[in-house]
Design goal:
- This protein has 248 residues and is an alpha/beta fold.
- The strands form three sheets. A seven-stranded mixed β-sheet has the order 5-4-1-6-10-7-11, sandwiched between helices. It has a two-stranded antiparallel ribbon with strand order 2-3. It has a two-stranded antiparallel ribbon with strand order 8-9.
- Helix 5 crosses helix 6.
- The longest helix has 14 residues.
- It binds cytidine-5'-triphosphate and magnesium ion.
- The site of magnesium ion (MG) has 2 residues, from loops.
């Protein structure tokens, strides 16, 4: 039965160490145009009026997140800062458990987003919420601009998929709550199912029959991963329109 008010919650991930960035401060806290990288996705979710935001951080950074991000910028929809785990999927699982504690169930929606992607905006949020409600599961992504090749372990090309069918996938990824929660519960109960899990759409693909819709993200919705990404992000921020879309 359709719930009267379908809540839309968000899990924002900030518990990674950022090893590829090679910086002593984890990349999600590095300054970008004077504010921490993590600020921007929380601001987009606040402006979109996500009902509840759960921020996932490491034990060392939890207090910093509470004081220097949530309190300092008055993010009123961040309900909790919870501790993440060793792998990204452990951190997502902690976020799902917290939303469950906050009463999420059934047909409520949950958005899962990397705190290291500062270019989230209201248009992307609108599209992923729409598709999650319609299809149960979706992932923001974009058609690949580059030709993609599958390689063998020795580094030789073995296959070239039709480029028009190749997407590179981003976050947010959005799901009906009970679908993603049950998929995660089954995955966490089986070690072999946890191998090489790098995003949440994979958990749905592996553990359920639900098909994951690929939803238009944006080419600027990049993930800050290596040092040159910060330079790129600074440049992209320059022309940024700060008018985040609102949810009706
Ligand atoms: N993340 C997390 N918990 C983990 C690992 C990652 O919450 N155990 C978060 C990161 O903080 C980031 C997002 O997931 O916002 C995407 O992960 P990735 O870009 O791989 O970040 P890191 O794992 O921190 O970086 P690296 O892989 O270079 O170490
Ligand atoms: Mg990582």
């Amino acid at each position: 039965m359709e719930q009267k008010h379908r809540r839309c919650g968000a899990i924002v991930l900030a518990a990674g160490k950022g090893s590829r960035m090679k910086s002593s401060v984890p990349k999600q806290f590095l300054p970008l145009r004077g504010k921490p990288v993590l600020y921007y996705s929380l601001a987009a979710l606040e402006a979109y009026r996500a009902d509840d935001i759960v921020l996932v951080s490491s034990r060392e950074e939890a207090e910093y997140c509470r004081r220097e991000i949530v309190e300092k910028y008055a993010f009123s929809r961040v309900r909790s800062v919870v501790l993440g785990g060793r792998e990204r999927y452990h951190s997502v699982y902690a976020g799902l458990k917290e939303l469950e504690r906050l009463g999420y169930a059934g047909a409520d929606l949950v958005l899962i987003h990397d705190g290291a992607r500062p270019f989230l905006d209201g248009e992307i949020l609108g599209r992923v919420c729409r598709d999650a409600a319609q299809y149960g599961a979706c992932a923001a992504g974009m058609p690949s601009k580059d030709t993609v090749k599958l390689a063998d372990a020795a580094g030789f090309a073995v296959q070239t998929p039709d480029r028009s069918l190749v997407w590179t996938v981003q976050t947010p990824q959005a799901f009906v709550f009970s679908l993603i929660r049950d998929a995660y519960e089954r995955m966490m109960a089986s070690e072999s199912s946890q191998e090489n899990v790098t995003d949440d759409a994979m958990v749905i693909e592996r553990m359920t029959d639900c098909r994951v819709r690929l939803t238009e993200g944006s080419y600027r919705n990049m993930k800050i991963t290596t040092p040159e990404d910060l330079i790129l992000a600074e440049a992209l921020m320059g022309g940024a329109d700060d008018g985040y879309g609102k949810r009706d």
